[in-house]
Specification:
Order of helices and strands: EEEHEHEEEEEHHEHHHHH
Structural class: alpha+beta
Number of helices: 9
CATH architecture of the largest domain: 3-Layer(aba) Sandwich
Oligomer: single chain
Shape: elongated
């Protein structure tokens, strides 16, 4: 997803003569790679979390996946419900960091990107304090604080990145869980109950984990060419500004066959810009090559540099 803005309301007239294209300068907010190094803009996503037979991790991992998904929806989908969450029983013999596993999940979910949360590694939990709850019930006369250390592992695969590698992320943390107990209740029983109610702690961890994958933006300037004396060309610019890229590109495709070499070049240049903004780097280069072959325009070298740096 890209954010577009025509910040130069009047054209910056780079070249202006009859029947020749004029360059309009646009400022565009372009998506950049997230802190993780993954560029996720414009891609569909799914989150999968593993559950083992003990069930101890189910509450935590369920919250972890939901918290992660909700933050990704805020970052990439304007908060709309767009990231599906799935649970998967963990096979003790499964290799969940393997490319084959992640590709299989991409095919099953029919999404571009899959995030897979492994079952957490819980460290040795302990009751760190007990205090009176000031309640009359004998079963809830004490509030015990249980400290639970854990390690989270996340496997990520982007089927549209051009890379076959699985990205692996991990982190260590600990959480405190407050549990009602009786005066004489043993630590083991208290700790077992603490594990059964870790959804909110998992959700908070998932939201924090998503920060590494959040969308980032940087403003870049681009040129689009048009004939000032031709309403078809000017409408194509308005279409681009109104996010009607298909309409704009249909016009430029036709103009790319013009008998005027400079107009052919301008149309191909515009196609290169549009393809790049829409995320198709290879197609952008092909159109820019075509533009340069017809007639090299001002801004060609700068555009090629931007395309090659993505």
């Amino acid at each position: 997803m890209n954010k577009f803005g025509l910040l130069v309301a009047s054209a910056a007239m780079i070249a202006a003569s009859a029947c020749e294209p004029t360059a309009y300068v646009w400022n565009v907010d372009m998506s950049q790679a997230s802190k993780s190094g993954m560029n996720l803009s414009g891609k569909s996503m799914a989150v999968v979390y593993l559950e083992d037979e003990s069930g101890r991790d189910s509450s935590f991992n369920g919250g972890l996946a939901e918290g992660f998904a909700s933050e990704m929806e805020k970052s990439y989908f304007n908060g709309d419900k767009a990231v599906s969450v799935y649970s998967l029983p963990k096979d003790p013999k499964g290799v969940y960091s393997s490319k084959d596993t992640l590709i299989h999940l991409v095919m099953q979910t029919d999404d571009d990107v899959v995030f897979l949360f492994d079952t957490p590694d819980f460290g040795e939990a302990g009751v760190t304090s007990r205090r009176s709850s000031h309640l009359d019930s004998p079963d809830s006369s004490v509030i015990a604080t249980v400290s639970i250390p854990y390690k989270v592992r996340l496997y990520a695969f982007d089927s549209r990145s051009g890379s076959d590698s699985v990205r692996v992320f991990s982190g260590n943390a600990s959480t405190d869980k407050h549990v009602f107990a009786s005066d004489n209740e043993g630590d083991k029983l208290i700790i077992d109950r603490a594990y059964s109610g870790l959804y909110s702690q998992g959700e908070s961890t998932g939201k924090l984990s998503a920060e590494k994958f959040a969308a980032r933006w940087s403003q870049q300037s681009f040129r689009l060419y048009a004939r000032d004396d031709d309403e078809v060309w000017m409408k194509s610019l308005r279409d681009a500004y109104d996010f009607k890229w298909r309409d704009a590109m249909n016009t430029w495709m036709k103009e790319a066959a013009s008998g005027n070499v400079k107009l052919r070049s301008a149309a191909s240049f515009n196609m290169a810009v549009a393809s790049f903004i829409l995320g198709d780097r290879d197609l952008a280069l092909k159109w820019l090559d075509q533009s340069d072959k017809n007639y090299p325009l001002d801004g060609s070298a700068e555009l090629r540099k931007k395309i090659n740096s993505r």
